[in-house]
Amino acid sequence: MRTAGKAAVVAGCIDLLQGRQGTDDALLIALAGPAAQAVLDGSAGGKEGYWPRVWAARGLLHAWDDRATAVIVQATADGAWRVREMAAKVIARHGVGDALPAVSRLRTDPVQRVRAAAERAVVLLTASST
């Protein structure tokens, strides 16, 4: 996967976040390391569970392209709190201004870790806009 390049990694992460089937197993292994094998074997919800989406969002922390904006905004409404938390972290790191309304809503999320990540994102986004 290392030789695939940033564009391929971003595209794969977008596909994973959108729940598209058929994503290359090598991408999951590259994103998650040894933990991916259990998911590939069907544990923890398998490839349809939330872990691949968490790993995909985390991948966007390191390999970002603006074409991932819409999917990272959508990820703030994911049913899995770990995905929402990671989406807020991505938004903060990359200053995704279009995500401000979505990440602002996460400040009332039922999970404290999501609220904390959202608060950080809101602070960073609003500080950069002044």
Q: What does it look like?
A:
The chain has 130 residues and is mainly alpha-helical. Helices cover 63% and strands 0% of the residues. The chain contains 8 helices and no strands. It has helices spanning 6-17, 25-32, 35-40, 51-62, 69-75, 81-94, 100-105, 112-128. Helix 1 packs antiparallel against helix 4, helix 4 packs parallel to helix 6 (81-94) and helix 6 runs parallel beside helix 8 (112-128). The longest helix is centred in the last third of the chain and has 17 residues, at 112-128. The radius of gyration is 14 Å and the shape is globular. The chain starts with 5 loop residues before the first helix and ends with a helix. The mean pLDDT is 93.
At a glance:
The protein has 8 helices and no strands. It has helices spanning 6-17, 25-32, 35-40, 51-62, 69-75, 81-94, 100-105, 112-128. The model has no long low-confidence stretch (mean pLDDT 93).
